[in-house]
Hints:
Elements: H1 13-19, H2 55-63, H3 100-111, E1 117-124, E2 130-136, H4 142-157, H5 159-162, H6 166-171, E3 174-180, H7 188-202, H8 206-213, E4 215-220, H9 225-230, H10 251-263, E5 267-273, E6 279-280, E7 284-287, H11 293-312, H12 318-321, H13 329-332, E8 338-339, H14 345-349, E9 356-362, H15 368-373, H16 376-421, E10 452-455, H17 466-478, E11 484-486, E12 490-492, E13 495-497, E14 502-505, H18 511-518, H19 539-542, E15 548-550, E16 560-562, E17 577-580, H20 585-596, E18 601-603, E19 609-611, H21 616-626, E20 631-633, E21 640-641, E22 645-649, H22 652-660, E23 664-667, H23 670-674, E24 684-687, H24 698-710, E25 712-716, H25 717-727, E26 733-736, E27 742-749, E28 760-764, E29 767-770, E30 777-782, E31 788-792, H26 803-806, E32 810-815, E33 818-821, H27 835-847
Parallel strand pairs: 3-4, 3-5, 5-9, 7-8, 22-23, 22-24, 24-25, 25-33
Antiparallel strand pairs: 1-2, 2-4, 6-9, 10-14, 10-15, 11-14, 11-16, 12-13, 17-19, 17-20, 18-19, 18-21, 26-29, 27-28, 27-30, 27-31, 30-32, 32-33
Amino acid sequence: MRTKRSVPARPALIAALALAAAGSLLLAPGPAGADPLPVTREGSAVDDRAARAPASAARRALTADASPAAPTRSYPRRLALAPDPENPGDKSLKLGLTPYHAIAPKLNALQRLGDRVSVEVTGRSAGGHRLYLVTVTAPETTRQARAQERMRELIENAPATAATSREITRDYKTPVFVNSNIHGDEWEGTDASLKVIEQLATAKDARTRDLLAHSRLYFNITANPDGRVAGTRANANGFDLNRDFVTASQPETRAMRQIELGTQPAVLLDLHGYVNGTLIEPTTPPHGENYEYDLFLKNTYANALGMESAVNALGYTPAKDGVQAAQIPFRDQEEGWDDWPPIFTPQYAAFHGTVAAHTVEIPLAVNNEEYDELPVPELRRRSAINTAVAGAAIRATLNHVREHRGTLITDQIEVFRRGAAGAAQVPVSPETVPGVPGIGPEDVYTTTFPRAYVIPPGGARTQRSGPAAARLVDHLLANDVRVTRATRPFRLAGRTYPRGSYVVDLHQPKRGMANALLADGRDISGKVSVMYDISGWSLGSLWGATVERVPSGSLRGAPLRPVGEAAPVAHVPAHGDLRLRLTDPREIAALNSLLRQGVLVRRAADGSAIVPASARREARTAARTHDVSFTATRQSGTAPLHRLRVAAAVTPGELFALREMGFDVTPVSTAVLNAGFDWSGADVLFVSAGLDRPDLTEPARQALDSFLDGHGLVGRGAAGAALNAAAGRLAVKPVEGNADANGVVRVRNSGGITRDAPARGFVYAPLWFTDPGPGVRVEQSYAAGNPLVSGHWQPLRDGSGGPAAAAGQASVVSGGHTVLFGTEPLFRDHPKGEFPQVARALFTVAHSASVKESG
């Protein structure tokens, strides 16, 4: 909790959110407290609604990438955009805002206003909509544009040299990134950006000319066009894009990532809604330990003051307009609006040199219940106010950039210099960050960076999965983390590593990004009472690769060469039957592709798949397509495996993961079953969300029970456990932990379902199972002691529901045709190393009379 302030503190944010008005529900403007609905940044992290995303959206996300960077050329860059078909169902229209189909014509018109506006298409959304980036700057010749690119690269790659460059001080244009509409039903940032772009395109005053001569302004017009059209927070895959930056599973997120890599913004605004009064970051503790937080806080707070002043100067009042004064969480709140996980746009940007980054939550709610219940005039009044507030925030930021561009670039260079030099972080304090009120020990979060991480290559002859290592390396590279590979065996810190090992040297400009992705993280349960979203994540622990932390040592003389991509893993022996390990989602996808072609695949006693020599051609295609390795085997296998048709009442992340592994999935829910569902097209049922047996009609309940009488059930979490109990399947007692708890946990694997699985898992609202009856097998348990590795997991007020209560208890159980998970093995694309547990569970319950036969 904060111990020192120079201004009076408001109540803790969580309490404030319960009363914060996203605008009164009354027609007349009212005070903020008139709206009883709680305001949240992203919505509940635990999704209890069944996903409905079309398979086409998953295909786009799994195959599409951001558009490749165009060769350096002059500004402006003209692009005539073909119009989109008019869509009278676009949810923006009701609010008097710009529908998606009107954006392309508007951008064409803006380009015609002069020589300051350029438009590019950075990719397509999961739903197939174009993603637009607008650049506003003074004209540049190709030579001048190349000089800007050269200076940008010098800032990152040679920061010590950049710090003394007179050319950079004199000529470098400060990059600014304005991101709008990342949540589709938070519309107004798009309209504010379009208005500001038009003003900048035509303004003749000296301040605008000076701004554009010394800055490049990048506007991501709508980061989530799928949601803008549909009026949903998520994209067409059901993903909250402002949760996706660690894994970048969605094409929209990858496009935003590419904008940040290509432009290296010093300043970023991410325009959201709705919190009344307008919420302007920086945030409450805990603060991300991998950031250069002293530089980040210094600049972010200074710009926040300017935005606060500009928003309040609009003159809106609680009595007249229902609009409260703006708030800055770092200054005004105790906890509950943190910047701990880099899953949010501004926090992710800090690793790429952004030293002033803000979520801005505009004030008056026009989504959800308000959208459905309020009259159109009231909705449009609110949207007009919100657009004005967002515009004021943008213009204040541009004024700040014009006045402080030297400091912003100097501090960006220092971020990269510290990383490249392996310099110590600077803890925040009143002395190191003067002018920021209320800094106390509760704001100090730093880490000890290791000297390096080593990722052994994996592959057919090693114990760990080659696909996992390759996937992790490619992901690091995609995030602009430098990776090298050993050309021969080498020693580091007293240990010998094999040829082909990947090495991530933490003496690099973006060491924070590397460490945030690879480190175990920290247990912060004792630091604060509540967290905003996930508190633990680790691709190093959860993606299935072996990642070894090397605390110290020298890389001087090590036989390492930089790599631009991971070495291919694909391999098929020339002779004999083939064995495919099923310990990675790519291997599951390869198996499903073979089954889809009718290849006779058998299950081996160790849980792997045996492919006959006669299917070598199909195996080679699968190996190349999915980058997996087959080995020669003399095993013949036992029971044949069949292509599975999965009926799934699951979260969006789980539906996406099932499709990533190549399963044929039909989304179901209580509503779908009540409408009449043909169970003949399903082989197995997976339930974790949105299917409540008591809410089914009698015919739907009878049809479900009839299906379960002869088919398998895989359940996860409380919803899966409830259906298991109602159907009288496994005799176990589910125990629910703290619903807010989440993070990386230690587990002990003991069954066929979890064979060769990582010793780490992920939980959100953890569950465990006690009192196992006859025939119940414990597949996995939480580790003894404190199972939490990193994250936030406190007991409930009565002392129950904490990690001590879960320690040693069963986290995955099986029996008959049923498997139940208390962990989150498919959570938001994070725990890829756990995905195969679900795949094995599906195959086991669908193909075996008992789980015992699987191992």
